[in-house]
Amino acid sequence: MPGLCIRFPDLGPMDDLPSLFEDLMAFISVVDAGGFNAAGTRFGTPPSRLSRSVAALEKHMGVSLIVRTTRRFAVTEIGQRTYEDAVRVRGQFKDAIAAASESQLEPSGTLRISCPMAMASEIVGRIAIDFMARHPQVHIAIETTDGRNRPFSEPADLAIQPSLTPLRDSSLVARPITRGKYILVASPRLQLGLSADPGPQALSSLPAVGWTFFSNPALWTLSHPEHGEHNVAVDARLMTDNLLLVREAAIGGVGVAQLPESLCRSHLESGQLCVVAPRWSPPQMTIYVLYPSRSALTLSGRMFVDALVAGLAPAGPADEPHRSIPAAQY
Q1: Is the pLDDT score of 261 beyond 60?
Q2: Residue of 2, 70, 75, 79 whose CA lies nearest to 34
């Protein structure tokens, strides 16, 4: 199991594993309750049996996990580490059992999703419709956002969140599901007169469409494989938090826009848009799906996360490990 740190000198025959696991669970119970007698009362197991289980675990590991005296109960340093690892094992075991049990069940109930408007319209809405067609007992409520970290008006089971930087560690799981490539695009008539590889000065002379997801929609950070990173001040004739409107403004000739390649691919193929300065790239955006914990998700929530990962995979899977973020950003 990933992240497991418990070290046993010799697990011995496979037949010993059930009793070893039982001893480990007894150890968790004793630590949780703060003593053998308290654990016996709380969990309905004789304290003598708990004591024998912990002693057997200590013997097998060759270490002391608990200091026992008539006046004092204390967990040793290695005991504390073993306890923390054992709690993770217990959680993973419960998840495995739940997943196996639920594999025979049909997902149902209402799934509440917070999602940026453009993603809901172009990708997530389609995934949701397909998901409901396959699972008719599921209802989905999608509230659209502008993509920035803002409180959801009602609690969400899942929140889809774009971010330019890795999300900070804290209480929520942040699973990266795809990484979006952004490009500079404009109406073909706006590109007339530009060289094949225009520099920042040429770009700053063009009108632009600003997306207010960025703290300064009129100051673009662009990178070039040879010239490095530059901040380019642009003349943002239109600024909006709606990425779909940014696209429409670019098609209408209002100005150059930074857009996800996936959001304008068909318009590039039809000739409504063209790539401007192909060697200058806006920052990539990582798309996360956020949830309190896998064990807190319903069956429909877990299955929808899997559907998101599968549906967004063609855009380029993110290789960043799962993180957790502050609850205030959810």
Answers
A1: yes
A2: 75
